[in-house]
From TrEMBL:
Pfam families registered for this protein in UniProt: ABC_tran, BCA_ABC_TP_C
Domain ABC transporter: 12-273
Keyword field contains Nucleotide-binding: yes
Keywords, sorted A to Z: ATP-binding, Nucleotide-binding, Transport
InterPro entries in the record: AAA+_ATPase, ABC_AA/LPS_Transport, ABC_transporter-like_ATP-bd, BCA_ABC_TP_C, P-loop_NTPase
Gene Ontology terms, MF aspect: ATP binding; ATP hydrolysis activity
GO cellular component: plasma membrane
Protein name as annotated: Urea ABC transporter ATP-binding protein
Species this chain originates from: Endozoicomonas numazuensis
Length: 273
């Protein structure tokens, strides 16, 4: 049952979440909390359950057991409560994410970035962002062609954030791998997520892009929570945040990077390999 003592500042709460595939437990009593405006890094060997954890949060996979709660009590404005699709809230206004499908979870304010960017290569950076913004407009608003001035302003602000202001009129195809990843993050930002889940953003990036991405994610966590899965330890170090180590579907260790790097179990199952 739902723990009645979830701390007030909690945005995401997983408690005893188990997911089995043909008897194999991809997640095994997984429990953790993410705070509002927290940046959290997740590491762990292949097969540890990192992607399955994201699948459970985003409504792609239903857990066999356990709670997956998204606490909107501190952030929901009266307008946003309409987005609950008629299902009731739990304690303190929390939403039981296991009751929603992927599209609904996205609308509740959880964005997910997969490893492979879904930028449209033939469109410009600006047009990609415009499409992402229009995706959230109501049918009534979409009847009008073009963008409102608030819409253009939002795109300008996003371009600045994702370091692509001087590339707004270039096509997606002309961007480097790192710039495509930033554009995709920008597209997600235009949906105003409260929580962003990001799978291996630094893979394939140059060293400079890797550090700029860490800076970007740290900046973004001033306004929302981010959960970042990565293998690149230099990138994790640059994120300078709490690290959680997953192993066999459970949390093996958590704390500062220094702390988990000195944990003998973490060295044995992951870092020492
Ligand atoms: N749809 C599925 N069907 C069967 N097994 C799966 C499925 N998804 C994941 N698994 C298994 O669950 C375990 C965890 O996988 P995953 O969450 O992808 O790990 P990670 O992302 O940490 O590498 C792996 O052993 C994987 O083979
Ligand atoms: Mg994975």
């Amino acid at each position: 049952m739902v723990d009645k003592h979830i701390p007030d500042d909690t945005l995401l709460y997983l408690n005893n979440v188990t997911v089995s595939f043909d008897g194999f437990k991809a997640l095994n009593n997984l429990s953790f909390l993410i705070n509002n405006r927290e940046l959290r890094a997740i590491i762990g060997p292949n097969g540890a359950g990192k992607s399955t954890m994201m699948d459970v949060i985003t409504g792609k996979t239903r857990p066999d057991t356990g709670d997956v709660l998204f606490n909107m009590s501190k952030i929901a404005s009266p307008g946003e409560t309409k987005n609950l699709f008629g299902r009731s809230r739990l304690n303190k206004g929390s939403i039981d994410l296991t009751q929603y499908d992927e599209a609904e979870v996205a609308n509740l304010g959880i964005g997910r970035k997969f490893q492979k960017p879904s930028v449209i290569e033939s469109l410009t950076v600006w047009e990609n962002l415009e499409l992402a913004l229009k995706g959230r407009r109501s049918p009534f608003e979409s009847m009008f062609k073009g963008l409102s001035s608030t819409g253009s302003k939002k795109i300008d602000e996003t371009l600045e954030k994702i370091r692509l202001k001087d590339r707004r009129d270039l096509t997606g195809a002309s961007l480097s791998h790192g710039q495509k990843q930033w554009l995709e993050i920008g597209m997600l930002l235009l949906q105003d997520p409260k929580l962003l889940l990001i799978d291996e953003p630094a893979a394939g990036m140059t060293d400079e892009e890797t550090f700029r991405t860490a800076d970007l994610l740290r900046e973004l966590s001033e306004e929302r929570s981010l959960v970042v899965v990565e293998h690149d330890m230099a990138f994790i170090k640059a994120l300078n945040c709490k690290v959680m180590v997953l192993h066999e579907g459970s949390v093996l260790a958590e704390g500062s990077l220094d702390h988990v790097q000195q944990d003998q179990q973490v060295i044995d199952v992951y870092l020492g390999r």
